[in-house]
Design a protein that fits this description.
Distance between the termini: 41 Å
Number of helices: 6
């Protein structure tokens, strides 16, 4: 399966909602064992929330080696690569380290109460 990100969410990849939209578009193919290609040609602005929602949450159910093998990232602008890597690293830690997950959830919960 090949998805053109610009056609699906546009040239700006900033929101969790857009990330969820992308995730929902490719998740069924990934669950079937297919290789998924995400083509970022024509995209230009990114934030980590987008990558958290579109890629990071795969690590809840799949090992990093399987994700790296079957999820192909094409034409991602160089400036976005550190954001994607950071999201993946944080997701790995979040889903694999219960103490980290508990601490982060507590901090986020406290921030939501203060807002």
């Amino acid at each position: 399966m090949n998805l053109n990100i610009q056609q699906l969410v546009g040239p700006v990849c900033m929101t969790s909602e857009d990330g969820e939209k992308l995730y929902a578009a490719y998740r069924p193919a990934f669950e079937k064992g297919e290789t998924v290609e995400l083509d970022f040609a024509g995209t230009r602005i990114f934030v980590s929330q987008f990558f958290n929602a579109s890629v990071g949450q795969l690590l809840k159910d799949y090992d990093i080696s399987e994700v790296q093998q079957r999820l192909k990232i094409l034409n991602l602008p160089a400036a976005a690569i550190p954001l994607l890597k950071g999201s993946v690293e944080n997701a790995q830690r979040y889903y694999r380290d219960p103490k980290f997950r508990e601490s982060l959830d507590r901090v986020l919960s406290d921030q939501a109460v203060e807002a």
